[in-house]
Amino acid sequence: MGHGVRPTAEVGCSDDGRQIVKTIAVVAALSAALGLTACMEVEQASSTPKMGKYQGKPDTRPWDNTPLAYESAKWAKGDKATWENQIRNRQLGQHEHKRIYQ
Q: Which among 12, 48, 50, 65 is most buried, taking Cβ atoms within 10 Å?
């Protein structure tokens, strides 16, 4: 067209376009490699597992635990009946009809 918008071959055009394409290809390849390594699953066992054995902390009965401090000790440690009463009262406090019409 001759308006000087695009440089022509006579002006001295370099290979900047090819260099940009190579840079984009390298960045894309590296990001794909990093993305695939992020999907790899790593073994998380801290020691050799014992087949058929529970590896976690042993559970205790809920009424054998000490009561929380902010609940003002509404049940005694080791007493199943007081623990059940405290759980029952807590559930009644969460029941909408029982709470509203008290």
A: 65
- pLDDT, one tens digit per residue, over 15-48 is 667 888 899 999 999 999 888 887 777 776 666 6
Half-sphere exposure at residue 51, Cβ-oriented, CA atoms within 13 angstroms: 0
Q: Do the beta carbons of residue 65 and residue 87 sit within 8 Å?
A: no
Token representation of residue 49: 């597992």
What one-letter code names the amino acid at 25? A
DSSP per-residue codes, 56-74: SPPP--GGGSPPPGGGT--
Q: How far is CA 5 from CA 1, 8, 16, 27, 63, in A?
A: 9, 9, 17, 30, 84
Global confidence as pTM: 0.39
Phi-psi label, residue 82: left if phi above 0, alpha if psi -120 to 50, beta otherwise: alpha
